[in-house]
Design a protein that fits this description.
globular, membrane, transmembrane helix, APC family permease, AA/rel_permease1
Length: 531
């Protein structure tokens, strides 16, 4: 293995350090409130959606093993405008994850029950980070970035240590909550009691409870592809191992949480009334597991911290990759000669992340930005994967499956549904944030005197129209998802599914053989298919 390269084990640990972040600490409680016992299905649906989406990116990532690669795939198949939209949306989601994890650290610190920690109580008030807490958030974000300033070896050693702790605490929580107080009756005795809020509650929980957000970090392996040992094999292994382990942990955590709630509490107000500030820690205290509650309060600090460190690495490499197209300042792509890390991109990300958290000091507000912007970017993955098979069937593909023919359209449809599930007006707000990047793109295209802009626009209009469609259907959809109920449930789902299939076909047909494919050929020519 070359110096500063990431092994499979380190890559998996890095991904797990991202995947098991602040979401697991309150995701189970939030999902149970929204969907009751059927929230177990919500976690399974979330995992299935992410695995199908990852299927597309594993093929693309092994074809083009470059750092920040997820910012380049759509550009190769559809030109720089679509590539920029995809990269910008993905970057917005990644940069927002940095303050999310810092806010989570500070929020949990503010609820520490020990007398010596009274000085942290002023960090959080009425659901919002205070001015005092804001300085603590900034400090955490600075440390996240500082750890990434060193070599990838330093990063992977740190995250491997954190990941072990992250795996241990959830596992202990699952085991001891089930042993100490498990009530099978909480899961219901019929379909109606298992799904007290119907199937709508299951789909709502997928997005509003942080479930999708909790699975999103599989892309850590893809974006660090240029630094992974044997990328033609280890990208596939790293993504699937980390996602599978995470899915098992999250589902079992939900089972343990549902079973541990006191039936008397449910009898009073139902699942909507189950409201814990620190779900697992509060239940551990009620069950007399004081030692476990202490570990949970510690993990409420460590898990977000580890995830924040990892996403500094991922977001910086995404921004670095965007400079290759000349649509953002070139200096952001400079790499430190000694450690091979994109320090300028890290500093820029830190500054913008600090600005974000100054205006959005609530975890939920930041999380909504992440969820929708991520899936706007993911909409291009299935289209790019199939389009590149059509444009360059002779490319080296270490991971090539016959199943992509159906996985790609299905994952595209699911992407549209997830954006819709985010509920009006979140959909239009985040889509607007994504489109705010267009003036930057137009400036650099004018500066470069681009000649093929018309072709770029023709190849991108399908996504712009799709975003407009999702905004309209979100407004007119069922009231269960924030709409005005013009299209009632489940007919709103039917409309999104049919329209998404049509937009997928349009997107694939919009690909073209341009100059960007020559860059793709350079990256792909040295890719190994077999050892």
């Amino acid at each position: 293995m070359k110096k500063n390269q990431i092994s499979l084990f380190s890559g998996v640990m890095l991904a797990l350090s991202s995947l098991i972040g602040s979401g697991w600490l309150f995701g189970a409680g939030s999902a149970a409130q929204v969907a009751g016992p059927s929230s177990i299905i919500s976690w399974i649906i979330g995992a299935a959606i992410m695995m199908l989406i990852a299927f597309n990116y594993v093929e693309l990532g092994t074809m083009f093993p470059e750092s920040g690669g997820m910012s380049r795939f759509a550009e190769y198949s559809h030109g720089q405008l679509l590539g920029f939209l995809s990269a910008w949306a993905n970057w917005v989601s990644l940069i927002t994850l940095i303050p999310i994890e810092a806010v989570a650290c500070v929020q949990y610190m503010s609820s520490w029950p020990w007398s010596w920690a009274n000085w942290t109580r002023g960090f959080f008030h009425n659901g919002t980070i205070t001015n005092e807490g804001l300085w603590a958030v900034y400090l955490f974000m600075f440390v996240f970035s500082l750890i990434n300033f060193g070599s990838v070896k330093l990063l992977t050693r740190f995250t491997s240590l954190i990941a072990v702790f992250k795996l241990l605490i959830p596992s202990l929580t699952i085991i001891f909550l089930i042993l100490a107080g498990f009530h099978p009756s909480n899961f219901g005795s019929s379909a109606a009691t298992f799904m007290p809020y119907g199937t709508k509650g299951i789909f709502q929980a997928v997005t509003v409870s942080g479930i999708i957000l909790s699975y999103d970090a599989f892309q850590t392996v893809i974006n660090l592809a240029g630094e992974i040992e044997k990328p033609h094999k280890n990208i596939f292994r790293g993504v699937w191992i980390s996602l599978s382990v995470t899915a098992i942990i999250y589902v079992l955590l939900e089972v343990a949480f549902i079973g541990a709630v006191e039936p008397s509490m449910l009898a009073k107000a139902g699942w909507h009334g189950v409201d814990f500030a620190s779900p697992f820690a509060d239940i551990a205290i009620l069950l007399g597991l004081t030692w476990l509650s202490v570990l949970l309060y510690m993990d409420a600090f460590i898990s977000p911290f580890g995830t924040g460190v990892t996403f500094v690495a991922t977001s910086a490499r995404t921004l670095m990759a965007m400079t290759k197209s000349g649509n953002v300042p070139a200096f952001l792509g400079r790499v430190n000669k000694k450690y091979k890390t994109p320090r300028y991109a890290m500093v820029w990300d830190l500054v913008l992340a600090m600005a974000l958290v100054f205006f959005f000091r609530n975890w939920s507000e930041l999380a909504t930005v992440v969820s929708v912007s991520t899936f706007v970017a993911y909409a291009t993955g299935p289209v790019a994967a199939i389009s590149l098979r059509k444009l360059r069937p002779n490319f080296n593909r270490p991971f090539k499956s016959v199943h992509l023919k159906w996985v790609a359209p299905v994952s595209f449809v699911l992407t549209g549904l997830v954006i819709y599930w985010a509920m009006w007006p979140t959909t239009i707000e985040v889509i607007f944030v994504v489109l705010l990047g267009l003036p930057i793109y137009f400036y650099y295209q004018f500066k470069k005197k681009t000649k093929n802009f018309v072709q770029q626009f023709k190849s991108s209009i399908w996504l712009l129209t799709y975003l407009a469609f999702i905004s309209v259907i979100s407004y007119m959809g069922s009231n269960a998802f924030g709409g005005n109920n013009t299209f009632k449930y489940p007919w709103d789902f039917v409309i999104v599914i049919i329209a998404s299939i049509l937009f997928y076909i349009w997107g694939v047909k919009s690909s073209y053989d341009g100059e960007d494919l020559k860059d793709a050929e350079k990256v792909n020519k040295d890719v190994k298919v077999d050892d």
